[in-house]
Write a structure and sequence with these properties.
This protein is mainly alpha-helical. Helix content is 40%, strand content 4%. It has 4 helices and 2 strands.
């Protein structure tokens, strides 16, 4: 299929109502993942996978996870979530007692 004077390989449509799904070359996968990642607002794997599967056919979850591991904002968000945990010690009257 020709799109903007560029040839693109598409997945065969089963129905006329199906949307066109493109196959991406390996050199354009990063650009596509970056655009989708910013569009979903640094959403996680599931949000990105849903968005990618609507337009592209050959991008895998492994590629998504590799991309997400390289995102500094997502890594900071993931590590900062555990700071709010408060641990209250249990104080016993005698050693090995529950009272």
């Amino acid at each position: 299929m020709n799109v903007d004077s560029e040839e693109k390989l598409i997945f065969p449509l089963l129905n006329a109502s199906d949307t066109v799904k493109y196959y991406m070359t390996i050199d354009k996968v990063f650009d596509v993942l970056h655009d989708v990642h910013l569009r979903v607002g640094h959403g996680g794997r599931d949000k990105m996978y849903h968005e990618v599967n609507q337009r592209y056919k050959n991008i895998t979850q492994k590629q998504l996870m590799t991309f997400l591991e390289c995102c500094e904002v997502c890594e900071l968000k993931k590590s900062g979530a555990k700071k709010g945990i408060v641990v209250k010690p249990i104080i016993f009257q005698h050693f090995n007692s529950r009272s």
